[in-house]
Amino acid sequence: MKRMMMLVVLGGLWMGSALADEVVQGKIEQALQLVGMESHFVELQGTLVRGLNQRRYEGVSSGAVSYAELESLIKKNFAPQLLNSQLAERLVDHYDANRFDMLLSSLQSDQIQGVRLRVEQAAAEDNLEQLRAYASGYKEAPLSQQKSYIIDGLDRASAGNELYAGVQALATLTMLRLQEVQDGIAPQFEEALLLQQLYSEYLESGRYTTEMIYRSALGELTPEQLQLSLRIYRSTVVQWFLGLAVENLTLVAADQREQLLTEVSEALKSPSS
Hints:
The chain has one domain. The chain contains 13 helices and no strands. The protein has helices at residues 2-35, 37-57, 67-77, 80-90, 97-107, 110-123, 128-137, 145-157, 160-183, 191-205, 207-218, 223-233, 236-269.
């Protein structure tokens, strides 16, 4: 009887711990969504699919694995919700209830959500023509120096250009590694060095793009509204969380890249391929 009672108690403790972990991860996933990380995962998946389609349109052979199968594997392994969940799992050890209460309160504010939603809409693929039109006419109708200064600060505080460069670098690296696996050759480069080089190049080349995205998205807001949003973005708790998210994004993408390459390798060995 005592042993059974002990097992019941231990079982209850385990279930309570599992439930607590689930609640913690749920809060972290919510914070990632509110800060806009899932939209960057959407862009990562989309960039990979577009890169694959570009090869198809150029007549590059997909080898033994069809383009349709490759696209399916990419969409599965780089599903935005999956990446968001895996990133949240990596951040569980950094969870602190009081800090996250402050974080969620900040991220749920109209100031941050207003900026995030406007920027995501401006950067959306179906808004590309409008963005180009805005950029081409910007010299004739620029924003005031005050607004431009604050908006550039929001770009930096929200890691806009850094996340753009990171996504593009990770996508390029993934496509290069995928081609090596399809060709049956060993890796031709040192991943860490190449990723840093790609990141630096995209950071520079993407600066103008993210500048136009942020200015077109936020130009209608008043300087006072922009300044308040910038103040919240620059708060210690938001910068702490953004730093963790950006730092671990590369690790999550690396895990999924290896999973993708493993599944492509297995498909190449399959008699049905």
